[in-house]
Design a protein that fits this description.
- The protein has 308 residues and is an alpha/beta fold.
- Helix content is 32%, strand content 15%.
- The chain contains 11 helices and 12 strands.
- It has a 3-stranded parallel β-sheet with strand order 1-2-3, with helices on one face. The protein has a 3-stranded antiparallel β-sheet with strand order 4-5-8.
- Helix 7 (186-197) packs across helix 8.
- The two termini are 35 Å apart.
Amino acid sequence: MTTCTSSAECAVGRFAPSPSGRMHLGNVFTALLAWLSVRSKGGRLLLRIEDLDPARSKPEFIDAIYDDLRWLGLTWDAESPRQSTRDAVYAEAFSRLPTYPCYCTRSELLDASAPHGSDGQRVYAGTCRDLTPAERAVRTRRPAWRVRVPDETVGFDDGVFGHVEQSLPRDCGDFILRRSDGVYAYQLAVVCDDGASGVTEVVRGCDLLSSTPRQIWLLRELGYTAPQYCHVPLLVAPDGRRLSKRERDLDMAHLRECLTPERLIGILAHAAGLLEAPRPISAQELIPLFAWERIGRAPIPIPGQLAV
């Protein structure tokens, strides 16, 4: 574990897995890079269990996360409060944002003639944005709640993908902060958690790159400083499909049967560009070899030693 001499100067990273299944190879890849990034700066790593969705979060998967990280040698310095305990925090933040109820069904959202974001995701058409109190009163469906985004462009410099910009109304649209079942949305929860924990760097998969501008905007609205973001390339199956817990793509149960921790870390380090050839190595030994400049942007096919 790491002890910082000055909290003001200490890098604070986090690994935030969701206990909806056993960690798969892509999760391990992200965890390794997040760990290396903060350890190479002499910083602290927080572990945060993102059990926001009670229907999908299982205690046995939480236990497996702890065990798998220890097996890999990816230690953490503190554990952040679990999201399932932080409803009051999210509610307070929610109350400070310009929200409105949205009564649209899934089919209505799909049928709406809304534009699409730069990443191909559908942008909300604003159907419920300006409903009058009388129009809301006759709605019987339990609403989700959206935040009203301003006409603003948010940009940031990603540690891997360089400068990224997004027009909130054109590329993002009013997005959901609380679901119709009362569960607070990931976008709000992750912002509150990163801000309250003093996270200074976020390492995660590039599938979340398009979410970052809206999260930066939320951080600013809630009075937090945005961290440095580094979005890592995704590991993909031989057919180009992204790895999934649902399909149990090379999950840790399988990997631990076939490999030692040092062998697995060496394979991933080579895939990331940190080693010229795959060889057994511990996470600790990799620290002096780590540099973001070595990490590419293109999706990384599952290394041949694992594609079985």
